[in-house]
Amino acid sequence: MPYQSKTNWQHEDVVTEQDLNRIEGGILEAQEMVDEHVSRTDNPHGVTPEQIEAETPAGAQARVDSHANRRDNPHGVTAGQIPIEDTAGHFATRDVEGALAEVFTHGVDGKAQITAAISAKGGAVPGSAPHSFAELAMGVGSIHVGDYSVGEKIEYKSLGLKNPPHYPIAGFGSERLAITACDSFGFVYVLVLGAKSIRKYDPVTWNYTLLQLPAPHTTKTIEVFQMYNDEIYAVFMDGSYRVAKLSLDGAGSWVSVSASPYYPSGFVVRESGVYLVDQSYIRKFNRLTGAEEWRRFASSYNLLNLAVDEGEMYFYIITTDGSNTVILSKMKLNGAGFASIWTGYPGGNYQIAALEDEYVYCGGKRYGSTSGTPLWSVSFGDGVTAAFALPDRSVIFGARSGGQIKKFSSDGSTIYDLVRPFDNVLSNPLNLSPKNFAVFEGSVYAQEEYYFIKICETLKITK
To answer: In this structure, are residues 360 and 353 in contact, taking their beta carbons and an 8 Å threshold?
Structure first.
């Protein structure tokens, strides 16, 4: 029964055994109640984690996530304690530290073996071991093959050849070729007669893509083109003959507003201007904008060809007089017209090439700056069909008879003389004559009416 307390004890009261038993029973009852309460785990007082500042489940998960996301190796695990799985058996060790050490050792040993091989071939690897791959590549490039290194070019004469080797590149069947050029990357550009686009050929695969005139002139026929600073300048027929710029990246293209009713028998591109023969006149168009800057009278006779030196100071024209004598004239700008400097007679040849103000080549002859008398002359039988001047002052001529191709140095000495080169490489005695040349880094592309050949003036050493 519940404990009955007595709270009115007096000084004179006598404590009996019943009182003591009641008191002891109350103490026992209280102790049992305390023990029962202490042993309970059902939170009898409803205390919350916040009341005792204990961790909540969400807080505990956040701590676990934070620990899992740490990248500072909180447990101090070493590479040697991390095992690897090597099912292929590449490593002797089975932990990350050992595997990395094996990889490093193999790499160093491999580089040392490559370095030794380069040295054995007479090359030298720059820097100090362990060498970088870039240094090893430079070492490979230093290996000499005879008197030359890998990547260098050997002139054909150094190989003991009388003439450079030449190979067929392409035959175009019934397609007649008009003109050829190369850009600074070695791509070859070809215009087929009557075409409305220019073909850009890869020099390795000989596959091509098409370059068209700026819209809305994409359906017009291109008559002739020239390459300058990796940009194409073309003359096309649009009722009259107009000039256009075809940029390879599509930027800065233009079409001239001015037009000429006469076929462009001469067409030259230089740094500031695009020059076009207009019967007895020469027109200049701004190379950047296409605006016509001037039109000047050049001769009483129709102009048959035109060359302009790199400085754009001197103009060379081919004409014929009343008796059909071919005349070569050197002129310079003078007021609104031209002033004549000299006149020469190159024979029955219209092909002309000029790069600098001091020299011009025409009809197998080289002319100087002050006189129409040739400095030297070589015979080509019944005429020159193509001429190409190079920056080193050499010149390549193509002949009508036998399709001969000759290259001469600035003093007129013969560098090489290819006799019937088209017939030889094509195994077809057609008596083909070169019409145009294009040059890129020691390779000369010679074009006749339907075919190309490639003349390799230098050979690149490869390994």
So the answer is: yes
Average pLDDT for runs of 10 along the chain of length 463: 76 82 80 82 80 76 81 81 82 80 74 83 81 82 65 77 83 76 91 90 88 88 91 92 82 86 91 93 94 94 91 92 88 92 85 81 89 88 82 86 85 89 67 83 86 84 63
**Widest distance between CA atoms in the chain:** 172
Q: Return the half-sphere exposure (C-beta side, CA atoms, 13 A cut-off) of residue 311.
A: 8
Token pair listed for 340: 């004549």
Residues 144, 146, 151, 156, Cα dihedral to 10°: 170
- Pair of tokens at residue 299: 């001769």
Helix residue ranges, H only, 121-242: 133-141
Q: How distant, in Å, are the alpha carbons of 34, 115, 130 from that of 104?
A: 72, 16, 11
Residue type, 82: I
**Which of 113, 166, 118 is CA-nearest to residue 140?**
118
Chain centroid to CA 421: 32
Residue that has been written with the tokens 């390879």 in this structure: 248
Instruction: Sort 447 into a burial class: Cβ within 10 Å, 0-12 / 13-18 / 19+.
Output: buried
Confidence (pLDDT) at 170 = 72
Q: Torsion angle of alpha carbons 40, 43, 49, 52, nearest 10°?
A: -70
Sort strands 305-308 and 292-297 into parallel, antiparallel or unpaired. unpaired
Closest CA to 357 of 366, 348, 368: 368
Q: 3-class SS at 28?
A: helix
pLDDT of residue 90: 80
**45 Cβ neighbours under 8 A, 6+ residues apart:** none
Give the chain's domains with CATH numbers.
Answer: 79-142 (no CATH), 155-460 (2.130.10.10)
Residue 227 β-bridge partners: 232
Closest CA to 341 of 319, 368, 302: 368
